[in-house]
Amino acid sequence: MVLEKEFYKNIVDNLPDGIAVCDSDGNIIDVNNNFERLTGFSKEYLTGKNISVFIKNSKTGCDKYAQEAIMNEDEFQKPKSYYIGELTDKEDKLTCVRINFSTTKDNKTIYLIIPLAEVAFLNRAHIDFVSTVSHELRTPLTSIKGFADTLLSSGSRLSDEQQKRFLSIIKSQVDRLTRLVENLLTVSKLESKKDKSIYKAIGLPKFFENIIYSIQLKAQDHKIKVEIMPNLPPVWADSDKFEQVMMNILDNAIKYSNTGTMIVVEAKFVSENTDFIEINVKDQGVGIPEEHISKIFTKFSRIDSPLTRQVEGTGLGLYITKSLVENMGGKISVKSSKEGSTFSLILPVATHEKPTQRKF
Ligand code: ADP
User: Which 8-state DSSP code applies to residue 349?
Assistant: First the structure.
């Protein structure tokens, strides 16, 4: 199958690197979108200019970045031939960049340019992830080891009651580890795009009946009300993913609100759009401060508050939830105040004839 030129152009334009193709004298023949963004110049302006106008060998200013970016990079990620240089933009601002180049058979040179701050940022995200996971694993492991050691060394001197208490702490820490590992596996599957979805039409009344049944033990100290608009058509989703999404949102609504308060689950059409259904989960909980709203959907983000410290969590739930929803062609958002939070989920309606996955 011959792929369209448009298809390759799309790939090249979406690469994180700036790309410039030059002739044997270094005159620019073509650039991608990112090269335009990095320099601030349009393709029309750049074409025909010499690449040496825009990239130069590094002066000492780049060394700090270069060292951090390159030292932290995995061997397999490193390009084979590159040098550290400076890119000049429209405002004469210099950016430290890694320049990777290769020459084609017909003597053209392709430059791949990526700002070192971005390389350093990606590496830092990787290092942060490993250190957070290690910390999350170590905390329950330390507690399990401590209580198991005590039971082994002085179990016979402890009362039955104390032994039971220590064993139940060990059990709850093992459960916590299991949840963390399960979450990490979900994250890894989602990020490697290895997971497959099985879509079908899911009728909401039956679906929510099952969800409320599964969550009843956790929700026993809350009031949960489900309001589904009459004659609402089914949604088009993967039922396991949809279930995981709803369980995560409801689990949070319960965890982050006081006992005795009300949680309302509401399903209706997105206003003026009968192709999509909106599901709102409203709680009367502690709310999410404005400055944290944008962060809660990122990995390992937990708001540091007395309540969050009390309730158990990994900070992965909403990251997974958002990825699952977007994976199914939907959207998730949140509105929050001191009176509580509303998480809104949008999913496509299942159509009768050949339902294709639509994006909101
Ligand atoms: P966690 O495992 O910590 O619950 P999540 O990714 O599910 O992780 O949520 C991230 C953070 O967002 C939580 O730690 C909490 O601070 C905040 N949060 C999530 N849902 C709610 C809610 N319904 N009300 C208030 N805060 C919430």
Answer: B
Q: Is the CB of 253 under 6 A from ligand 1?
A: yes
Q: Helix (H, G, I), strand (E, B), or coil: what is residue 342?
A: strand
pLDDT tens, 212-234? Answer: 999 999 999 999 999 999 999 99
314 CB near ligand 1 (under 6 Å): yes
Distance (Å, rounded) from C-alpha 174 to C-alpha 137? 10
* Radius of gyration for the chain, computed over Cα atoms and rounded to the nearest angstrom: 27
For atom 20 of ligand 1, which residue has the closest CA?
Answer: 252
> Is any ligand 1 atom within 6 A of the Cβ of residue 249?
no
Q: Show Cβ contacts of residue 182 under 8 Å, excluding neighbours closer than 6 positions.
A: none
**Minimal-distance CA residue to ligand 1 atom 25:** 287
Provide the strand spans (E) within 183-330.
199-202, 223-228, 235-238, 262-270, 273-282
Cα of 232 to ligand 1 centre, how many Å? 29
Distance of CA 179 to the CA centre of its chain: 18
Among protein residues, the one with the nearest Cα to ligand 1's atom 21 is 252
26-49, pLDDT tens digit by residue?
A: 999 999 999 999 999 999 999 999
Closest by Cα among 181, 254, 161 to 214 = 254
Instruction: Assess whether the C-beta atom of 283 lies below 6 angstroms from ligand 1.
Output: yes
Instruction: Tokens for 13, please give them.
Output: 């334009």
Q: What angle do CA 272, 277, 280 make, to 5 degrees?
A: 105
- How far apart CA 360 and CA 351 sit, in angstroms, is 15
